[in-house]
User: Fold this.
Amino acid sequence: MPEQQNDIQLRSEEVQEILSHVPHWLIRWGITVILMVILILIAASWFIKYPDTVAARVVFTTEVPPVHLMARTNGRITLMVSDKEQVNKDDLLAVIENPASTKDILQLSRSLDSIRSIIYKRPVELGKIQMDKSLSLGALQNIYLSFTSVIDDAKRFSSISFYKNQREALANRVQYYVELNRGLEDQMDLLAEEIELSQELYEGDSTLYSQRSGTKPEMYRAKANYLQSKRNKESLQSSIIQNNIQIAQLKAQIDELRLKEEQEADQLQAGIVAAYEKLESELIGWKQNYLLISPIDGKVSFSKFWSDNQFAQAGEEVMIVVPNSEDIIGTVAMPVQGSGKVEIGQKVNIQIDNYPSNEYGMVIGQVESISLVPRDNMYSIRISMQNGLVSTYKKELAFKQEMQGTAEIITEDKRLIERVFNQLRNIIDRVN
Assistant:
């Protein structure tokens, strides 16, 4: 009992008052409510997801991008089309001032296209190549005249038939020696009979002389006739051999002439091809410098030059050809920093500068492709627009080439509680 009294006396009156007082119900329920609110917030932070995004600028174009046509040289412009006019690929849109006749240049271009297959064919069908020498081609004039000169040389070579005539003359001489040998061979047949007969006469006279029935002069005459016949045979054989040598030499000359003709024809062919390719190359360069030609089907859009005789500087944009394609894509230039979170298939929210998002809403796209290698520390990302330019407010926005906006690529939907813990972990890691 004395020990318990001592313990009670150790407590102050204030402490005894608190311990002996029962908490008010408001306090008890307040603690319960606060605990429930905390639990609700924790539960909500688990269910609520907040997207992690990467922002970048986006430019809208069509599948086939618009083509900006620039002046390659200084000069006054002659427009061949009007603004907003529909054009086809390879249509002439404008001409920059130059000394040549545009009509003649286009005629030359068509002529070169028409004879292309003939030029590379062997042998060249020169009769099918007809070039107008009265064309006014300005800087191309001398090169064009060189080409027509090569064609004329080839035509003269073909018309003169120098090698052909020489071959025919030699072939006639070959035929002459062949006929001559045929006659000599006929003589050889007759001479063989003559030799046989003279041999028999000589042998007969020799027998008579040995039997003393014939005279010695008769025997000598028979022998002389026999020997003369043999000499005649040898002479004919020698003539035939000489004629055959002549035939072989003439045939060799014919082959040599044929080879020379082929070599000269090859040289002319090479000269024609070289002159053609040089003219074609210079024509392409000339057209690039002085003609603005549409590379695609589309619609012309003027920006600065609206009438003829306006002066254009080299490198200055003259007009734009907007393609007819309706497939819209977005192109994003993404900085290297943070780009590792971007993956194909991720959703993209886009706010277009032309259309305020609070009034028109956003358009939705998807990451379609990412360049493998950055250029100037920027990755090129292609955004596909499955719903076109229909906004989240169900408004269809009008497309204009190269209009821009801000793209937010949703890289990950994180829970709110994950973000809190990530921040806490980051702080702890920094402290440690």
